[in-house]
């Protein structure tokens, strides 16, 4: 089975927010909720960098670990999904998530937040019918053999989605071909002009 | 008339000059198309410093998030700490505290047993808790139990009830727990403050309270240590509620009203304070409930009927008894519906 992962190549992201729009459109996401966001660091300065973030479908997902209702589960493809019928909107997943992925439609007194919503890797969620699934969780493109729309529509192919191994292979190829000392993200001190992308070429 | 012919020539010359100048200026730019020189002058890739900044959760002035009203940094660095604190420390040690207290009380009851009155009842009663205190006490007590059970369910329920009952029952159960907890919590908080304010006068620490603790409330050595209206143990419970209890209430308000826009980090800390305080108080409350019910003879009636027997008062609160013994009334008079005109904790307004 595949291990689905997102990866955003910060050297390529141009902060066009196409992924955000594609996601909103594909999943018909509720007003006020944006499952994907684009973060720009050092905006307007030399070295400005942008990166698209959503649920990263962690191996050891903190949201799953802290959920009082145990409403999260992992699919065979390594996608972290949740059951909105069990969700009580306590907000603990939001406290724990490293990426700020869980969002709530409301933020009212007495902890009335509504049901949590987050990126599903375009894999829908638990429901009786296709209509109910779309209504609650959005598109299930994975069931149709398609990848998440955000990555599919990324104009610079900064955002990659798919099996972790495939995504890693593509990124490694890029790092090698970029041909400068710091072709990846890491600022690897062992990579120099004579030994480009040191760690990338030595991965299996 | 010759102006129109002179203009184009002048324009042509100006244009040629501009083109030449542009070409001259463009030379260094064109030279940079050479990859080696471009690499030498290009702004470097994302630096390790950038990622260190991200990892620390720090947000600079030029940080942008495309999400509306987002106050989030790129990486929620404290989220993992909160998770580890909650799941590795608060959760298991809370279970040890509450479960341990149940075991200790059960063992104590089996081995030592109930604290009986030292002498037979005299049949003469003293007013201890007026109706208003009893009403607030039982309302606060009921709310405390509901909040404790729903809170325990929020922390531990998923390990027990979900596998036991299945998703349908579990879903309703946990949803009811959350709603009850969030709506009754503020009510509990307000009433707790009222109750604490009402009984504060009995709970100022005294010198004889130290002796009370040295004798373990009567467990160590023989005879009852001195106690006024409230004994050392009751005062300890009062001050626990006045400190940890109010901290739990305050942190609960922080968690319960996200509409004020408090940050994720604030709520992480509020949650830890809330859980630690509430679990500790739940453990101590078990002791309070034990002593007030099956643990000692004659205590519960003080909070149910409002009156206690003279013997009980002499046993447990000798200094208070000395103050109010002349106000004792026979239980027949009470049964006939003619209670004492005043008394109870009002009469004992002298702190003790």
TrEMBL record, chain A:
GO terms for MF: 4 iron, 4 sulfur cluster binding; electron transfer activity; metal ion binding
InterPro entries found in the cross-reference section: 4Fe4S_Fe-S-bd (IPR017896), 4Fe4S_Fe_S_CS (IPR017900), 7Fe_ferredoxin (IPR000813), ET_IronSulfur_Cluster-Binding (IPR050954)
4Fe-4S ferredoxin-type domain segment(s): 4-32, 45-77, 78-107
CDD domains the record matches: DMSOR_beta_like
Alphabetically ordered keywords of this record: 4Fe-4S, Electron transport, Iron, Iron-sulfur, Metal-binding, Transport
Reported cofactor(s): [4Fe-4S] cluster
Family matches, as Pfam families: Fer4_11
UniProt name for this protein: Formate dehydrogenase iron-sulfur subunit
TrEMBL record, chain B:
TM annotation in the entry: 89-111, 131-156, 183-200, 236-255, 267-291
Broad class of the protein's primary localization: membrane
GO molecular function: electron transfer activity; formate dehydrogenase (NAD+) activity; formate dehydrogenase (quinone) activity; metal ion binding
Keyword Cell membrane: yes
Region: Disordered, residue numbers: 331-352
Classification via Pfam families: Ni_hydr_CYTB (PF01292)
Keywords: Cell membrane, Electron transport, Heme, Iron, Membrane, Metal-binding, Signal, Transmembrane, Transmembrane helix, Transport
GO annotation, biological process: anaerobic respiration; formate oxidation; respiratory electron transport chain
Subcellular location field: Cell membrane
Keyword RNA-binding (UniProt): no
Topology versus the membrane: Multi-pass membrane protein
Top-level division of the source organism's lineage: Bacteria
Leader peptide range in chain numbering: 1-31
Gene Ontology CC annotation, any one: plasma membrane
Domain Cytochrome b561 bacterial/Ni-hydrogenase: 128-306
Cofactor(s) essential for the protein: heme
Family note: Belongs to the formate dehydrogenase gamma subunit family.
Protein name (database record): Formate dehydrogenase subunit gamma
Species of the source: Halomonas campaniensis
């Amino acid at each position: 089975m595949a291990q689905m992962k997102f990866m955003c190549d910060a050297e390529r992201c141009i902060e066009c927010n196409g992924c955000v729009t594609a996601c909103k459109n594909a999943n018909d996401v509720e007003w006020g909720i944006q499952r994907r966001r684009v973060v720009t660091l050092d905006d307007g300065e030399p070295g400005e960098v942008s990166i698209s973030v959503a649920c990263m479908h962690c191996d050891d997902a903190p949201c799953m670990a802290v959920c009082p209702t145990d409403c999260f589960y992992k699919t065979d493809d390594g996608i972290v999904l949740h059951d909105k019928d069990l969700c009580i909107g306590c907000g603990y997943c939001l406290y724990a998530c490293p990426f700020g992925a869980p969002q709530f439609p409301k933020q009212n007194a007495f902890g009335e937040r509504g049901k949590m919503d987050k990126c599903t890797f375009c894999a829908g969620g638990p429901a009786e019918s296709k209509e109910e699934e779309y209504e609650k969780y959005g598109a299930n493109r994975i069931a149709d053999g398609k990848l998440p729309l955000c990555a599919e529509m990324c104009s610079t192919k900064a955002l990659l989605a798919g099996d972790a191994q495939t995504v890693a292979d593509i990124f490694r190829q890029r790092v090698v071909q970029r041909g400068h000392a710091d072709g990846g993200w890491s600022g690897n001190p062992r990579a120099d002009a004579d030994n480009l992308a040191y760690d990338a070429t030595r991965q299996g | 008339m010759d102006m129109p012919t002179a203009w184009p020539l002048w324009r042509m010359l100006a244009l040629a000059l501009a083109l030449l100048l542009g070409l001259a200026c463009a030379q260094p730019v064109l030279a940079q198309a050479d990859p080696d020189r471009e690499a030498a002058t290009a702004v470097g890739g994302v630096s390790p410093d950038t990622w260190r900044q991200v990892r620390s959760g720090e947000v600079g002035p030029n940080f942008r998030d495309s999400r509306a009203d987002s106050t989030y940094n790129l990486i929620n660095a404290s989220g993992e700490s909160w998770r580890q604190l909650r799941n590795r420390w608060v959760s298991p040690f809370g279970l040890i505290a509450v479960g341990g207290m149940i075991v200790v009380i059960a063992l104590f009851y089996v081995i030592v047993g109930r604290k009986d009155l030292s002498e037979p009842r005299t049949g003469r009663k003293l007013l201890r808790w007026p109706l208003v205190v009893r009403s607030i006490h039982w309302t606060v007590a009921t709310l405390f139990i509901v909040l404790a059970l729903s809170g325990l369910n929020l922390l531990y329920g998923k390990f027990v009830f979900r596998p036991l009952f299945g998703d349908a029952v579990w879903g309703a159960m946990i949803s009811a727990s959350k709603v009850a907890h969030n709506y009754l919590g503020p009510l509990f908080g307000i009433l707790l403050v009222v109750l604490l304010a009402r009984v504060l006068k009995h709970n100022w620490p005294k010198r004889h309270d130290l002796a009370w603790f040295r004798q373990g409330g009567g467990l160590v050595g023989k005879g009852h240590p001195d106690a006024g209206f409230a004994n050392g143990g009751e005062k300890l419970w009062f001050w626990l509620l006045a400190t940890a209890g109010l901290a739990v209430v305050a942190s609960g308000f922080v968690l319960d009203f996200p509409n004020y826009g408090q940050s994720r980090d604030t709520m992480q800390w509020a949650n830890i304070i809330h859980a630690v305080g509430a679990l500790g108080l739940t453990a101590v409350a078990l002791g309070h409930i034990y002593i007030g019910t099956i643990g000692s003879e004659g205590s519960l009636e003080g909070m149910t009927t409002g009156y206690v027997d003279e013997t009980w008062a002499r046993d447990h609160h000798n200094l208070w008894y000395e103050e109010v013994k002349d106000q004792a009334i026979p239980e027949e008079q009470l049964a006939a519906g003619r209670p004492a005109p005043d008394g109870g904790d009002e009469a004992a307004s002298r702190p003790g």
